[in-house]
Every structure is written in structure tokens, then in C-alpha cells.
Amino acid sequence: MPTEPPLDELLTLDAVLERIKDRSGRVIGASTWRSYVAREQAPGPVRRVGRLPFFSPDDIDAWIDNRPGRGNWRTDQ
């Protein structure tokens, strides 16, 4: 049975939004992120504590680096 990752290795929603801003220079709001996750356009939480979602830093980094579509933020193209 797989073990859950420790919380200190995961990102809160606020940390996800800050990571996106730091790595891409773009700002998105919490409601936008939640809608991406709900539509499976962004990685979902890997763990929850109560109602609080926690995300994998590796999943978030991969999403930032490979975000498809018109809103692709990569500047190294």
C-alpha cells in the first residue's frame, strides 16, 4: 500500500499560485486554478487534510513547463 507524501513536501493552493507566478511570471487566481483542476486541465491534489488540498511540486512544475494551448506561458520557444 503506497504511503502518502509528507505534508512538508507538498504545496498548498497559495504555494501553487506563488510557484506559477515565480516560474512563469503569470498570475492566476485561486478560482481559476480550481476550475482548471475541476476540468482536469491542471493536476489535482495528491492529498487532502479535511477540505484543504495539497499538490505535488513535481506535478505543478511539469504542468507549468508543458502547459498546452493558447495560454502556454513558456518563453523559451
End-to-end Cα distance: 41 Å
- Principal-axis shape: globular
What is the count of helical runs? 3
Biggest sheet, spatial arrangement of strands: 1-2
Radius of gyration: 13 Å
Q: What is the makeup of the main sheet?
A: 2 strands, antiparallel
Detailed description of the structure:
The protein has 77 residues and is mainly alpha-helical. Helix content is 40%, strand content 8%. It has three helices and two strands, in the order H-H-E-E-H. The chain has helices at residues 13-24, 30-38, 57-66; strands spanning 47-49, 52-54.
Topology record:
Layout: H1 13-24, H2 30-38, E1 47-49, E2 52-54, H3 57-66
Antiparallel strand pairs: 1-2
Helix pairs in contact: 1-3
Keywords:
single chain, 77 residues, mainly alpha, two-stranded antiparallel sheet, 3 helices
Condensed summary:
It is built from three helices and two strands, in the order ααββα. It is mainly α and 77 residues long.
